[in-house]
Amino acid sequence: MALPILFWLQTSMPDGGLSLAFQPALLWRGEGWSGLFTSMFIHGDWAHVAMNAIAVFAFGPPVARLMMGPRGVVGFLTFYIVTGLAGAVGYALVHADSYEALGGASAAVFGLMGGAFRLLGRRDGTLRPLNDRRFLLMSAVIMAVNLGAGLIGLAPGAVGARVAWEAHAFGFVAGALLIGPWVRLFGSRPTSFDSPADLRDPSA
């Protein structure tokens, strides 16, 4: 898995990877833009890495199967990065004056989760509409768990650290919204859904 390897490399850095973290307040000062990208490849400890690696293993394959072949690999990696960036930017909007260092792949993982939830029970690769009852129920459950983890701090690898639940939420929403257009752009085989450019979704 790439995440454990990246964390192993991170541990050999003089500052433990802190220079790669994202600080929202720096962004609004015109600094630290690279942290938006690099922060999703660093983690706090092995428990943090393991949690995200397991989540990628669980929610990545359903999304990856929609984007097969070399073009699909590019699409999948870009989807992962874009949803991770959406999470970081969303967190920066909520905590514009924070200098607290943010790191971890969780926002991108939640992006994969948002995309995968649109596929619940759909073996033919079609997406559930955004107003689908099953999608909304599962989304509400995972967001409640996410909020609880953030407010109470019940998350592996989060001892003594803030859980950026807002970044997770923004990443999830980005994944749920972007999966349709993304498959249109990067899907290597025809699918039976049609998601127009304005992000509206087809009827069930």
What's this entry about, in short?
With 204 residues, the chain is mainly α. It has helices at residues 2-10, 24-28, 35-38, 46-64, 69-94, 106-117, 133-152, 165-186.
Structure write-up:
About 4% of the residues have low confidence. It is built from 8 helices and no strands. It is mostly helical. It has one domain: Rhomboid-like fold.
Please render the helix and strand layout as text.
Blueprint: H1 2-10, H2 24-28, H3 35-38, H4 46-64, H5 69-94, H6 106-117, H7 133-152, H8 165-186
Helix pairs in contact: 1-4, 4-6, 5-6, 5-8, 6-8, 7-8
Mean pLDDT: 84
Number of helices: 8
Report the count of strand segments.
Answer: 0
Bin the strand percentage. under 5%
Instruction: Report the span from N to C terminus.
Output: 36 Å
Number of domains: 1
CATH class type: Mainly Alpha
Main attributes of the structure:
57% helix; mainly alpha; globular; Rhomboid-like fold; 204 residues; 8 helices
